[in-house]
Amino acid sequence: MPPAEVEPAAVVVIGGGFAGLNSALQLAAAPNPTPVVLLEPQERFLFLPLLYELLSGEMRRWEIAPRYQQLLAGSGVVWLQERATRINTSRKIVETSSGRELPYKALVVATGGRAETYGIPGVLEHALSFRSLEDVERLQAVVQRLRERQRPLQRLVVVGAGASGVELSCKLADLLQGAAIVEVIEQGADLLPGSKAFNRDQARQALLKRDIRLRTNTSVIAVQAESLTLQRAGADAQHSEALSCDAVIWTGGLAGRVPDLNPPLPLDPRGRLICNSCLQVIGADDLYALGDAAACPFRDADQASHPATAQVAYQQASCISSNLKHQAHGEPLQAFNWNDLGEMLGLGIGQASITGMGLTLAGAPAFQLRRLAYMARMPGLQQQLRVAGGWLATWL
Ligand SMILES: Cc1cc2nc3c(=O)[nH]c(=O)nc-3n(C[C@H](O)[C@H](O)[C@H](O)COP(=O)(O)OP(=O)(O)OC[C@H]3O[C@@H](n4cnc5c(N)ncnc54)[C@H](O)[C@@H]3O)c2cc1C
Question: For residues 301 and 131, what is the distance between their CA atoms, to the nearest angstrom?
Fold first, then answer.
């Protein structure tokens, strides 16, 4: 669509992940909706919590990565398959990768996050990441190579023992079937620092059962083509250790990924837009931010921000769509209140652990319940039904 055809009074949403897609769909579904334009360069939405199941072959690409064309059909959202390159907050214009200038009445920034490398040498060049369909393909190729080669002492290292690192290492160990050692390196004192106690215990057992070695209090200080340099907490750089490995997967941190802002607005130390409790970006009343790209305080600016999860992004989308309506009618905005629904971890093929809503459950039943819960979170009824059909077919 040429720029002149885009209604200048539109709400523009940048990024079609959990946060942006749900914001756009809810805004367009409201009575008397304002025109909504979604800027998203990818062809497919990606249901990131099920990326491990795509890696293991437990789920298929079409189930976890439906096309935007299908998800947005009939929704009223105008989708531009483009990247936002700059936001001009004084002219209220978004510039895109094709050179288009999109005027906005209100702007929602939902551009998500990227791996935080902390400037550690070699991470960008040598470590794999795990956030995209391409990452899954690359990792599948590594697993296949290690399984075919069957050399002694092959090693795959996962950096970070947060939820991503733990879930990924369990799936990898199951896929490798002993063809390589899997090690997890964590700079903190324990795995899953922000998790529920039951899930942490289940995760510990899952690692033990698979002979996955967890090295805590250990930092990665450099990554080379076939090794890592490690340093124990309290030791100096001269007492570093080299660990040889066949591949490194980096899950060691997350930073916000925000388009250039002109004039600039303050970002937090993790590169995220700083919001007030109503999800308005501090310094620009017509700019909202949410999901992994936003730092939003729990209740006031002194408190820590919400966890970077799909659950938070999903709930923030509802808050933003109602606050945009309040703003349009001159009504007071509502603070975002996160309703913690609990935590679900995939712990290897066909296994999971769940803590939430008064329930703790582990093993195969938890795996099926987790899959069911995510099915209900798929965007759009049509995709929910398609995935449910695929799931039922595996039972017949
Ligand atoms: C492997 C993995 C597993 C996870 N598992 C869980 C889980 O089990 N439970 C849970 O709650 N959370 C989980 N998370 C975290 C969760 O997926 C994120 O918190 C959530 O996706 C954040 O949503 P978002 O919309 O902010 O960002 P994203 O989902 O990352 O979406 C951002 C979108 O913005 C687009 N974009 C980026 N830059 C631009 C630009 N300049 N212009 C236009 N578009 C742009 C991107 O293409 C992308 O589609 C997981 C994350 C990963 C990586």
Answer: 30
What pLDDT does 2 receive? 47
- Please give the mean pLDDT across all residues of the chain: 92
| Best mutation site among 25, 309, 336 for ligand 1 pocket (most ligand atoms within 8 Å of CB) | 309
- Give the 3-state secondary structure of residue 245: coil
Q: Determine, yes or no, domain membership for 58.
A: no
Number of domains comprising the chain: 3
Asked if the structure places residue 59 within a domain, the reply is no
Other beta carbons within 10 Å of 62: 14
107 lines ligand 1 (CB under 6 A): no
Structure tokens at 46: 């990606």
Hunting for tokens 């305080």 — which residue is that? 297
Same domain, yes or no: 245 and 128: yes
pTM, entire model: 0.93
250 close to ligand 1 (CB < 6 Angstrom): no
Per-residue pLDDT reduced to its tens digit, 275-301: 999 999 999 989 999 999 999 887 645
Cα–ligand 1 centroid distance for 113 (angstroms): 6
Where residue 88 sits, what CATH number does that domain have? 3.50.50.60
Tell me the torsion sign for CA atoms 389, 25, 305, 268. Answer: positive
Q: Is 258 in the pocket of ligand 1 (CB under 6 A)?
A: no
334 occurs within a structural domain: no
In a domain, 241, yes or no: yes
Whether residue 110 has its Cβ less than 6 Å from ligand 1: yes
Q: What is the domain range of residue 322?
A: 3-41+82-115+255-328
